Amino acid sequence: MEKGESNARIASDVGFCSATVGTLRKRFSELRLEGLSDLPRSGPPRKIGDEQIQQLVEKTLHEKPKASTHWSTRKMARAMGISHDSVSRIWRTFGLKPHRADTFQISTDPYYVDKVRDVVGLYMSPPENALVLCVDEKSQIQALERSQPVLPLRPGKPEVHTPEYFRHGTVSLFAAIDVQNGRVLGKCYPRHRAKEFLAFLKEIERHVAEDLAQGKEIHLVLDNYCTHKSATVSRWLNKRPHWHLHFTPTHASWLNQVERFFAKITNEAIRRGNFLSVNDLILAIRSYLKAHNEDSSPFVWTATADRILKKNG
């Protein structure tokens, strides 16, 4: 670049617009190198100081509004004498969300550690010549009929449902998922007592008859629901030494992989369904099971027992 070059030529060489080049050349000629630094920008001065911001954060964390369980932006704005938009910006900056609340449940199971290691061990290192099945029931699934037609999905608009519905009864889904291939054996019953659970265990036995003939052991992962430990069920299992039960800790049913399947069927086939009768609901469940098993894949368990115990310890 030579002395006396035009602004347009310099702008072309350095990738700036010619107006910017002209401004910088003028500032350089007047102030030399100091003129190339950013000048103070225009704009109103801050109205909320650091001390007031700290006070707002402390109030959010350690106080509650009168007769309320948590702050809203408008209640905090009135308490602090600033706009609710300013409160919202400050809360976002500090990651504060008073309107939200999560839940937790601490397991008091005295054998919590042993049960976690037992169940996770089945998932990550299953026994040889054995089937590992996760079993549970999704009880009282409601057959709900919408009181008005569903408005279908359209460009720019989601599917629309009326919040009003008619109840047509309930059904309980008993399911067993094979952790090796993800296939699910499911059966619907009108209730979820020990009687129905025993009937489902017998259904499992018929389903795995070929594996049993080959001498395979059956390992069931269950939660602590009372029907799973009833005298009727216990007597039946005591006669079958090749069946082994592994109970998840109390308040830790999320360790049971079948719960993940229940979440899938709820989200994909039940929650937005429209069922005119319990039979319609049962047919929808059976259809989903059939489609799932035609293209099944196992859930990949990656959390080790040590990682779970460290996180929940």
Characterise this structure:
- The chain has 313 residues and is α/β, with parallel strands linked by helices.
- It has twelve helices and five strands.
- It has helices spanning 7-14, 18-31, 50-62, 73-80, 84-94, 112-124, 194-207, 209-213, 231-238, 258-270, 278-294, 305-312; strands at residues 130-146, 165-178, 184-189, 217-222, 243-247.
- The longest helix is centred in the C-terminal third of the chain and has 17 residues, at 278-294.
> Could you give the order of the helices and strands?
HHHHHHEEEHHEHEHHH
Uncertain regions spanning at least 5 consecutive residues: none
CATH H-level homologous superfamily name of the largest domain: Ribonuclease H-like superfamily/Ribonuclease H
Task: Give the DSSP E fraction (strand runs of 2 or more residues).
Answer: 15-25%
What is the CA-CA span between the terminal residues? 67 Å
Q: What percent of residues adopt helix (DSSP H or I)?
A: 40-55%
Tally of individual domains: 2
Rg over C-alpha atoms, rounded to the nearest angstrom: 32 Å
Number of helix segments?
12
**Name of the CATH architecture of the largest domain:** 2-Layer Sandwich
**Counted beta strands:** 5
CATH class of the largest domain: Alpha Beta
Tag the structure with descriptive keywords.
313 residues, 2 domains, five-stranded mixed beta sheet, Nucleotidyltransferase, domain 5, alpha/beta
Outline the fold blueprint.
Layout: H1 7-14, H2 18-31, H3 50-62, H4 73-80, H5 84-94, H6 112-124, E1 130-146, E2 165-178, E3 184-189, H7 194-207, H8 209-213, E4 217-222, H9 231-238, E5 243-247, H10 258-270, H11 278-294, H12 305-312
Parallel strand pairs: 1-4, 4-5
Antiparallel strand pairs: 1-2, 2-3
